[in-house]
TrEMBL record:
Homodimer. Belongs to the Fur family. Pfam families: FUR. One of its GO terms (cellular component) is cytoplasm. The gene is fur_2. It comes from Paraburkholderia caffeinitolerans. This is Ferric uptake regulation protein. Its cofactor is Mn(2+); Fe(2+); Zn(2+). Zn(2+) binds at residues 81, 84, 121, 124.
Length: 145
């Protein structure tokens, strides 16, 4: 059996996990080892080709992190937890039309937007709360409440 090309293997991975966001490094670690010329450089090349072909999309999610995901045909923004790195898709048509309106108001033809909202997810917020409680609330806080 001929080994699969890295492009095919990478695309297959995105189809297998159609709702996951993966960095190039995560893609590289999940591509089957029998893939032809399996290296981080070939994964980057494959990602660039798949982006060009419109089969996947990429998003900047803060610092030096870029994630890739299957192009599901709808534009969306991202909500990122700055503690654990969880990424949520925001499919909000009102937001999309607002981007277009902002562009149109300045006589730009709208092409795309890259919006990332940072925050702390419910799980991280809950574990932070219990950590604070374990450590004992700061003086005065309890009495004022
Ligand atoms: Zn979190
Ligand atoms: Zn996404």
């Amino acid at each position: 059996m001929r080994p699969t090309s890295s492009r095919v293997a990478v695309l297959h991975l995105f189809h297998e996990f159609p709702h996951e966001h993966m960095t190039a490094d995560q893609v590289f670690r999940r591509v089957p080892p029998e893939t032809e010329q399996c290296s981080l450089a070939s994964v980057y090349r494959a990602l660039a080709q798949l982006l060009d072909a419109g089969l996947i999309t990429s998003a900047w999610i803060g610092e030096q992190r870029v994630v890739y995901e299957l192009n599901r045909g709808t534009r969306h923004s991202h909500l990122v937890c700055s503690d654990c790195g969880t990424i949520c898709d925001i499919d909000d048509n009102a937001l999309e039309s607002q981007h277009a309106a902002i562009a149109a108001a300045r006589e730009f033809r709208y092409a795309s937007a890259s919006l990332v909202i940072f925050g702390r997810c419910a799980q991280c917020e809950a574990s932070l709360d219990s950590a604070v409680r374990r450590a004992g609330a700061p003086h005065g806080v309890d009495r004022r409440a």
